[in-house]
Design goal:
The complex is a heterodimer of chains A (156) and B (135). Chain A is an alpha+beta fold and 156 residues long. Chain A has one helix at residues 27-48; strands spanning 55-59, 63-69, 78-83, 86-92, 101-105, 111-117, 128-132, 135-141. Chain A contains one helix and eight strands. Chain B has one domain: Immunoglobulin-like. The chains are: A alpha+beta (156), B mainly beta (135). At the A-B interface, α1, β1, β2 and β5 of A face β1, β2, β3, β4 and β7 of B.
Chain lengths: 156, 135
């Protein structure tokens, strides 16, 4: 590794040691090691990727949770809009006045806007959004009219 | 310019990690950082979403500073993930300190998922103003 100032490369020490094949060839192990390799590639992509934060969506039959990572963003700089079953999120990280000489600058300027199609219509009155430690969590409840209804079957 | 911070080559991370038991292994990723140098200190700013102050671990071992962050975020339990663009990760990154840094006085703060380290320079390494006598 060269001796220049830190760049975006993930430190080599995060990688697990290479698998050594002291025994017979094991195809499962081969696949596992391949998957681990892909993970490493993704890690690297993640740590040097551009400025668009990823979004995760979790849901069950009655509710959905949407999360995204917005480090350094203030709650006042996040806008959420709900239109039918589409949630729009936009956020901005205000640039900081860094003092002194800049030796490394990997943190991207953060300004993004995304629209997410929700798995169902939601109740606009019951949306909760929270920004904590740089993670935005939006909890949405499925609209009553959209919920699956259980129909009782009567005997006779 | 001499460099105060150099990327670490192979370090003894594996050894230090096995020394401290960790809960169910979650993968760590290197956080993205900005580094600034002033006359009196080097400042490291790291994006570590999900990490609160109590999840930050800063260690200096020899001339290597290791910054670790444990995210307090968990996957929502009763839900199914239906769309996933990122994985919840912990963070780890090491920096090699130049001799100008006073490893004893490193300070860290955490706010909004951003960790800030202040690495003060030794007084001897700070620029000194030399008074010019008139006459």
């Amino acid at each position: 590794m060269d001796a220049s100032i830190n760049r975006g490369d993930a430190p080599a020490n995060l990688e697990p040691p290479m698998t050594t094949y002291a025994y017979a060839w094991d195809p499962f192990r081969e696949v596992e090691s391949m998957l681990a390799g892909m993970d490493r590639v993704l890690d690297r992509a993640w740590s040097t990727a551009g400025s668009t934060p990823g979004i995760n969506v979790y849901a069950d039959d009655e509710a959905a949770v949407i999360t995204t990572e917005l480090p350094g963003v203030q709650a006042a700089d996040v806008q959420l809009q709900l239109h039918d079953d589409v949630l729009s999120v936009s956020a901005e990280r205000k640039p900081e006045a860094g003092s002194g000489e800049r030796l490394a600058s990997e943190r991207p300027a953060l300004r993004f806007s995304r629209s997410i199609s929700l798995p169902f219509a939601v109740d606009a009155e019951r949306v909760e959004a929270r920004l904590a430690d740089g993670v935005l969590t939006v909890a949405l409840k499925r609209a009553e009219a959209d919920r699956p209804r259980r129909i009782t079957v009567n005997a006779n | 310019m001499f460099s105060l911070l150099k990327p670490t080559a192979k370090t003894d991370t594996a050894a230090t990690q096995s020394a401290q038991p960790q809960p169910a292994a979650r993968r760590s990723v290197a956080p993205r950082v900005d580094i600034h140098e002033t006359d009196t200190a080097v400042l490291i700013t790291a994006d570590m979403p999900g990490v609160a102050a109590d999840g930050v671990d800063v260690r200096v071992h020899g001339d290597v500073l290791t910054l670790r962050g444990t995210s307090r975020v968990q996957e929502p339990e009763r839900f199914q993930p239906i769309w996933r663009e990122y994985a919840i990760r912990d963070y780890e990154r090491s920096f090699r300190l130049g001799h100008a840094i006073d490893g004893e006085r490193i300070a860290a703060t955490a706010k909004d998922g951003v960790i800030r380290l202040t690495l003060p320079k030794r007084v001897a390494a700070q620029p000194r103003r030399i008074a010019v006598a008139a006459g």
